[in-house]
Each structure stands twice: as structure tokens, then as C-alpha cells.
Specification:
With 126 residues, the protein is mainly β. Helix content is 0%, strand content 50%. The strands form two sheets. Strands 2, 4, 5, 6, 9, 10 and 11 form a seven-stranded mixed sheet that branches. Strands 1-3-8-7 form a four-stranded antiparallel sheet, with no helix packed on it.
């Protein structure tokens, strides 16, 4: 079992930056695959970023590529999502998610992640 707690959300003006943190506890966190998703009310969860374990390459949704950067610090059991050049359309509740270390293919669908944080609100004003 893995427990995840996000923090770092808030209100920011368009063009600004925020860094989200996702602190994990439980089992061997360093072996778990991590992903980031976001959700706007009334819409489905949207993939944001996920890291392929074998070579640590991170995949990003086209909508955030070049602006968002995901990283992890296994010593602190924490993953981060650095968001820059934020746009009003980035407004959403952001979730980190974890999946057991099975397979090498990066997973971008929320159904592939059994463990989720509570989410943190990011609001970008125009």
C-alpha cells in the first residue's frame, strides 16, 4: 500500500509558475511508477506526465510539453511537478498517482494507477 499526499497548489497569474509536491509513504516507494493527472469539473481525468522506469524518460501530454517538468527524489519519497508558463486552461485539480513496478511500458491511463493522492487545486487567472 502506498499513501500519497499532494501539496503546492494555489492561485497564480497566467505566465507564472508553481511546483507541486507529492509525498509518498508505505512500501518501497522508489520502485513505484509515478504519474500526474489533472481534472476539470465535469470532465475526465487527463494525463499530464509519467516516467518510464527503465531509462527515467518522462512522457508529457502535448498540452504541457515544454512547460511542465516531473522529477522525483527517492531519498525524500517525493515526486514533483514543476509548472511554468501557466495558462488559464491549466486550471484543474492535480493528482499524483502510483502504480506497482510491473512492466516497462509507460502508462498514461488513470485506470493503470491504483494509488492516488487527494488532489491539489491549481487556478491560473488570466
Amino acid at each position: 500500500q502506498v499513501q500519497l499526499v499532494e501539496s503546492g497548489g494555489g492561485l497564480v497569474q497566467a505566465g507564472g509558475s508553481l511546483r507541486l509536491s507529492c509525498a509518498a509513504s508505505g512500501r518501497t516507494f522508489s520502485s513505484y511508477r509515478m504519474g500526474w493527472f489533472r481534472q476539470v469539473p465535469g470532465k475526465e481525468l487527463q494525463f499530464v506526465a509519467a516516467t518510464r522506469w527503465i531509462n527515467s524518460i518522462t512522457y508529457y501530454a502535448d498540452s504541457v510539453k515544454g512547460r511542465f517538468t516531473s522529477s522525483r527524489d527517492n531519498a525524500k519519497n517525493t515526486v514533483y511537478l514543476q509548472m511554468a508558463s501557466l495558462k488559464p486552461e491549466d486550471t484543474a485539480v492535480y493528482y499524483c498517482a502510483a502504480r506497482p513496478p510491473l512492466g516497462v511500458v509507460v502508462k498514461t491511463h488513470p485506470d493503470d494507477y491504483p494509488y492516488w493522492g487527494q488532489g491539489t487545486q491549481v487556478t491560473v487567472s488570466s
